[in-house]
Amino acid sequence: MMNHRQTAFPLTATLCFGLILAPAALRTRSSFAQTPASSTAARQIGTVKSISGESITLATDTGQTVTVTASADTKILKLAAGSTDLKTAQPSQLTDVAVGDRMLATGKPGEAPTALAATRIVLMKSSDIAQKNAQDQSQWRTNGVGGIVSAVDPGAGVISVTSGAGKYTVTTTGSTTFKRYSSDSTKYQDAKPGTLAQIHTGDQLQARGQKSADGLSVKADEVLSGSFKNLSGLISTTDATSGTITLKDLATKKMVTVNVTPNTNIRKLSPQMAQMFTARADGGRPGPSRSAPGPSGQAPGARGPGAGRGELSQMINRLPSESLADLNKGDAVMIVATEPTPGAETFTAVTLLTGVEPILTANPNGGMDLSGWSMGEGPGTGSE
Prior knowledge:
- There is one protein chain.
- By secondary structure, this protein is mainly beta.
- The protein starts with 15 loop residues before the first strand and ends in a 22-residue tail after the last helix.
């Protein structure tokens, strides 16, 4: 017997694992911190797709499929989900490797460009990942708040947040971890490292940590934020080559260009759902709060008005996905987009809804504020 979700993995004693919630299932993706390593070592990071004897097929985080070959000399270690220190890894063996596990393999390049002869394998079990994921989700639900930033005091490290469930005070410290939604995604696993200085009034924000007895303040362990823009109107042009659409935004009366990327969540509302949203926009039923989409599919800790957003989000994500090719001139759309970077002229769509004619007819100066709805494939809201 042998004793064994972009960048290269250096030979290091430190690993940093991030969480991903893929559609309809809890899964984990990992990214590994870069530290000094041997320039001759080859590294592959990904998810185990199949195993045949000593040969492991790995779907890497860069989109490749590689074959990792173990041997009697391969050192195999198992790291607990959530651990960031390889010193805590336990010896394992090849028979412990299973489909769905996360793996870091280092060694020598094989004869083929997509082959690797492993000298070391670091394994993170999918079952451990799922358990850790569930624990983290529970923490967000129990010890989290979310909403729209109403004020920021950088000196005190205090952020005021407002949502349909109430007003909250988020206190940050030197140990608080900040993350920022990426430019084209509201997926938790796509979030980038951030800072307090990036957070501004009007941003969406969610935070988890130690809650006060009354639940109205949080000493934050982690803060996730982002700036989003609501756009709505009739499509003027589509350009499949550049991946863009243009429309005259109903709110600003200006023509805007919107990037539609592979990460854009495009859904078509059914007539029944469009009428339901129209009723909410008209005030016929309780409207949505503007709370940020939390890892549970709704603002963590929200139990007051707007607490049903997660369920509605899941309803939308059950609708068939569409693509840029399905969009046509004259289609009515409502879009949640990331704010352009300074100097940029185009928005990037995160969520795009079609079939929204009844909503825009009832609200000719702009559709509903979608940014507070968990209508992207956010953490915990996976489509089915």
